[in-house]
Every structure is written in C-alpha cells, then in structure tokens.
Amino acid sequence: MENSRKGQPIISSLKSGHPKTLLSAFLYFDVSFMVWMLIGALSVLIAKDLHLSAFQKGFLVSVPLLGGAFFRIILGLLSDRFGPKKVGMTSLLVTILPLGWAWLGGKSFYELLVVALFLGIAGASFAVALPLASRWYPRENQGIAMGIAGAGNSGTLIAVFLAPTLAVTYHLGWHRVFGLAIIPVLVVWVLFTWLAKEPPVTAAPTGIRPYLELLKVRDLWWFCLFYGTTFGGFVGLTSYLNILYHDRYGLSAIAAGNLTGLAVLSGSFFRPVGGVLGDRFGGLRVLTVIYLLVALSFMLFGVFLPVVPVAILLLTIGILALGIGNGAVFQLVPQRFSSQIGVVSGIVGAAGGLGGFFLPSLFGVLREYWNLTGAGFVVFSFIAFFCGTVVFLKRKNWEHEWLPVPEISPERDRGLPLLPPAVRVPMEVVFGG
User: Fold this and answer.
1) At the top level of CATH, which class does the domain 9-195+214-428 belong to?
2) Hey, which bits of 177-224 come out as E strands?
3) What are the respective helix, strand and coil percentages of the chain, to the nearest 5?
4) What's the confidence (pLDDT) of residue 20?
C-alpha cells in the first residue's frame, strides 16, 4: 500500500501480482474473442453467399455464443485440475480446427452451424484467462486485474473492423479470412507459452460436484442473471449489429462492420473502468446505475428505430454501459466467491454465453415471423431494468452479508473520510491518495 501512496497506484497494483501472466491472459483472451466473433463479423457476407433467412442469420451468429457457454464449464473443470496455463495452451491449438474447417469447407448453413459450435471453444477462454489473472493478485487489486484481463473482449473489435475489409476490399472472401485467423492464434500461443506462469495458488481438482453444490446458492443465480444481461448483451448485440445495420439501414458489409466496431470499442475500453469504479464505489452501486442506463438507451432505440446518427449514438451508449457492467460484475465475483473463483467463473461465464445466444436468436425470430426490428431491444431493456431494480433493492443486505466494512483506522488517523461499506480497499490503493 505504501508504494501506492507514493505516486504510481496503478503500476503498484499491477506489480502486486505477475504482470507477464496478466499480459498473456489478456492476449489469450483477445485472440480467442477475435476468433469467437468471426462469424458475426462476416455474417453479412455469409448470409448473402448462402442465401440465409432472417431467422437463420440470427441463429447462426448466436451458435458460437452457445458453444462458448457449453465449453466454459468444461474448460473451468480442466483449468482447476491441470492448471489454467496448460488448458489455455491446449485450447488455442484446438481452436485452429474449426478455423481450418471454415476456411477449407463451410459450404452450407448446417456445416457452418457445426463450425460455429466449436468456435465456442475460443469463447470458453473466459474460464481460463480470468482465473489465471485473478489468482496472481491480492483481493484489493482484483478489480483492475480482472478488468485488464477481461478487456480481451476487445478481440471482437479486431474481428468486426478487419474481417469484412479483408474479405471485400482485398478480395479474399470470407473463407480465406478464417484461414488467416490461424496466424494470430499461433503467434499468441507462442507468447502465452513463453510469458504465462501457473498461479502460485491453484484450486484443488474438484470435479462436477462443486458446480452442483453451488447451484444451491441463490447469490450465484443472481450473478448469472446479471452477467447474462451485461456480457450476454455485449456479445449478443455485437454479433448481431452487422446484420441490423445492413438489413435495417442498408449499409454495406464494411460500413456495418466499422459501426459495429465503434460500439465494440466503447464497450471493451470501458470494461476495466467498470472494475476500477467497482473498487472505488462498490460494484453494486455501479451496477444499479449501469442497468438503468442500458434500459433507457435500448428502450429509446427499440421504440423509435431512429435515423442512423441517433441509432449509432444510442447503441454505442448502451454497449458502453454493458462493458462497464461486465467489469463491475466481475469485481464482485472474487469477493463473494473468493475460494471458488474458478468454478464460479465457469458458471457465470456460461450464463453470459447463454444470454448472448438467446438475444440474436430472439432478434431473428421477431424479424422472420413478425417483421419486428425494435421489439427485441424493448424486451432486453425490460430485462436490464429488472436487474437494476433487484440490485437496488438487495444492495444493503448483500453489503451486510458479504461485503463487510474494511479496516479504516489508518484512514481515520490521517483524517480521511470513511469509505462506503461496499468498498473493500482504501481508495488510495487504486487512485493514489
């Protein structure tokens, strides 16, 4: 703490763990997200080439998210048993298989569904990267460590910006883009193998029983709902925005990708901000505000379906808020489930993937059978409002039950103001006094 008080709190916080492992966790998460989001990034071109219906478009871009939810539990179990570094190295190599299949095959909708499902292995990186980073850092620095590692969801940005451009401008076609993605996967595998170290404190191999036991804990289900809304909303919307901008507003694949990238950039950049704000003000307080902002922005978009500039503004604000919410949720997870972070990350992460799966599927069904574009956004805004209401009503009980007041006598001696109950660490640890 003294180092933090003397001038460089962020650097001191990072040095409290293993920065090289934190960097490798970010890179692993980043390239995995890039791979995971490729079908969504190329969805306009794939849909045109395969003559997909509105329902098929929504369902195809949602299947990688379903695969991510399924494989996260598996990777979480394997990570606890064999160590997150070994599992991360293996999963990167396995990811090459569906990429190669899409490159050399991918000739039909049903074939791409199988490819999309196994691209979920990349999405399952969540259950490896976050425990790998978290177990290297003390409790008071969980927000910034988890935020930096989790910012790897910016890999979505690489996919939505570059993939359509490579396919159209450079005349590679979407098949070859999948093949090109193998190159950064191999590069990150080398860096991950070189830089990452297994954490000094690892979870004992547990099997499936702890997952079943945790399902009895009511708080876990709330975390699943909260993350299913924030992360599920983030990946679900960024997977579908290309289709929305193209079908609703008539934009080209490249223009739709660039606008989607703008939204992704805002959400990814602000995820670490959510962790830092959670450390400073308390994750529960942050979530209350964030859910209301999400509800308002998507309600306005869904009801009015405004012109392009206003649509971009509302969608970007909503996705930015979801990014902050992602960081805030996982600022809370290690504090409520500090001894079960690997198992809980797998379960909560799976819930996020499931949330992402249902959202584009809902958009596709509503568009296919009722020709409704904005109704899905209205439904999602009600879900976000419900989450914000729950957090607001239950916050004081949760703070009393599992967010005890930190030691404050040093601060009192120095005449500093008392910290709010939800904050587990003095503010100067994060902000330098």
Assistant:
1) mainly alpha
2) none
3) 80, 0, 20
4) 87
